[in-house]
Amino acid sequence: MTKITARAHAWAYRLSVAIFISIFAAPTLWASCAEETVWIRGAFGQARFTVEIADDAEERAIGLMNRPSMPTSAGMLFIYERPGTLSFWMRNTLIELDMLFVDATGTIQNIHHRAIPLDETPIFGGDGLTHVLEINGGLARTLGISVGDELRHPSFSQTDAAWPC
User: Fold this and answer.
1) Does the pLDDT of residue 23 top 60, yes or no?
2) Strands 45-54, 74-88: pairing kind
3) What's the confidence (pLDDT) of residue 4?
4) Domain parsing of the chain, residue ranges
5) CA-CA distance, 163 to 16, in Å (whole number)?
6) pTM, two decimal places
7) Quick one: fold of 35-152?
8) DSSP tag of 107
9) Residues 20-27: what's their mean pLDDT?
10) Is the pLDDT of residue 21 over 70?
11) Which of 41, 63, 71, 159 has a C-alpha 20 to 30 A away from that of 51?
12) What's the CA gap between 39 and 44, in Å, rounded?
């Protein structure tokens, strides 16, 4: 094989790999860490949720209040700037929710299953938390999501994240 032929083969191979990545792998990689998407992985496998973000006081105060339903693969991700002690309640929340309380690495520290609609009893999440993911009630158990499972989202420090983007 001549030098020109070897270079042409190497160039064709690189081009083929680039085309494969751009068609098949890249959309998956780009979609895996988007602001509106939360991934969870654990012994059960992986799950993806399309989320609304609540990252300021007003958005966090309203949360999922007054909504009659939520799509199965949807949720709300509450984001806090610094680790702290978090408690939630269900004031004006019409749908049953599972609350996943998460630390700064993206690791689930506590799960409150099936929070009761309209109940104003505080739901203690724990200390050292930066995120809470609310999903439809019963879904965490149905999927097998448990304490210790990991979230992937661009809001986690990518140097500290258990599952970085």
Assistant:
1) no
2) parallel
3) 54
4) 1-32, 35-152
5) 29
6) 0.82
7) Jelly Rolls (2.60.120)
8) B
9) 38
10) no
11) 159
12) 13
Which letter, b or e, does each residue of 41-53 get, where b requires 16 or more Cβ atoms within 10 Å of its Cβ?
bbeeeebebebee
pLDDT category, 11, cuts 50, 70, 90?
very low
Here the contacts of 70-75 (C-beta below 8 Å, separation 24 or greater) are 70/95, 70/136, 72/136, 72/139, 73/48, 73/49, 74/49, 74/50, 74/135, 74/136, 75/38, 75/49, 75/50, 75/51, 75/133, 75/134, 75/135, 75/136
Q: Which amino acid is at 149?
A: D
Token digits of residue 140: 């965490």
Give me the residue label for tokens 């420090």.
Answer: 157
Tokens, residue 112: 């409150």
Query: In this predicted model, what pLDDT tens digit does every residue of 108-121 receive, in sequence order?
Result: 999 999 999 999 99
Structure-token pair, residue 50 = 């399309």
118-136 confidence digits (pLDDT tens) = 999 999 999 999 999 999 9
